[in-house]
Design a protein that fits this description.
The chain is α/β, with parallel strands linked by helices and about 290 residues long. The protein contains ten helices and eight strands. An eight-stranded parallel β-sheet has the order 7-6-5-4-3-2-1-8. The C terminus is likely disordered.
Length: about 290
């Protein structure tokens, strides 16, 4: 679906419009074989008040990302959001512990969990979602640690294909949407091709081969405020943008932060870590050169 969005004159509306324009320009620079890919913008609203989510929603934004289970719970069950944002789509983009899975799957409007990195977590999500008698599978992504940093969560690139097979064969209530990475910040600030993005593309090739599907049937979630344009050029279909839309975050003093899945989405079937404890759409655009997943 393509629709006009971010037309309101609010600060958030202007920022959304700017991000969409930059997305469109980046999409035009992609290789020809990637020109037809849809792109989803996940607005990362962690630490931001409900009022900002409502404002972004009024500007046409539908996909929102949260890193913390408690914050996702509070916002997902907020009376204003439940009443006003009927088709909001939540993405969980933080590190998820098995003992918190039920709290995430019970959030109204949950669209996708982007940070699955173990068979145990996939099994827990599968069992939890199955008990809810939902009429659709839960979309997930496999998080891959493409940078090899100890501070990052995620599967090793060599583990992604086997993990994808496990989800396909053993997790009937889950739908593997694609692969996600955070990557190293220092690799995202230059003009050269980002090796973390290249690594995720290569992982997708291997995953697609073992699953017997086309590569472009699997999404790539990569790119944040500082590097989403390069990510789109490399083939990203899902970018996680927070501070560029909502402004710099204010963290509570009792919250500690490490590497996050956001900067420091119906889930489309058409293609369409924060620290080690609890660690990133525009609904559409009037541009005719690129489609934005709603």
């Amino acid at each position: 679906m393509i629709r006009n969005m971010a037309s309101k004159s609010s600060d958030i509306g202007r920022q959304l419009r700017s991000v969409l324009d930059r997305m469109n320009a980046a999409a035009l620079r992609r290789p020809q074989q990637l020109q037809g890919l849809n792109i989803r913008l996940v607005a990362v609203s962690k630490t931001k008040p409900v009022s900002m989510i409502l404002e972004a929603y009024d500007c046409g934004q539908r996909h929102f990302g949260e890193n913390y289970v408690k914050e996702l719970e509070e916002k997902g069950h907020d009376p204003q959001i439940l009443q006003h944002c009927k088709d909001i789509k939540w993405h969980f983009i933080g590190h998820l512990q098995k003992n918190k899975v039920n709290r995430v799957t019970n959030v109204p409007g949950l669209c996708m969990v982007e940070t699955v990195d173990s068979e145990k977590l996939a099994t827990a999500l599968n069992n939890s979602w199955g008990k809810l008698s939902q009429n659709r599978p839960l979309h997930i992504m496999l998080q891959v640690n493409t940078s090899g940093e100890d501070s990052k969560n995620g599967l090793q690139p060599s583990e992604a294909a086997a993990m994808a097979l496990f989800v396909q064969d053993k997790c009937l209530h889950l739908k593997l949407a694609g692969l996600m990475t955070i990557g190293a910040f220092e690799r995202s600030v230059g003009d050269d091709i980002n090796p973390d993005f290249q690594c995720l593309v290569q992982c997708r090739q291997k995953v697609a081969e073992v699953l017997g599907v086309g590569e472009l049937e699997l999404e790539l979630s990569m790119g944040m405020s500082h590097d989403f344009e390069h990510a789109i050029e490399a083939g990203s279909t899902n970018i996680r943008v927070g501070s560029t839309i909502f402004g710099v975050r204010d963290y509570p003093q009792n919250q500690t932060h490490g590497s996050t899945a956001s900067d420091s989405n119906s889930c489309s079937s058409s293609l369409t870590s924060k620290n080690k404890s609890d660690s990133g759409e525009a609904s559409g655009s009037s541009h005719n050169s690129v489609s934005f997943v709603s």
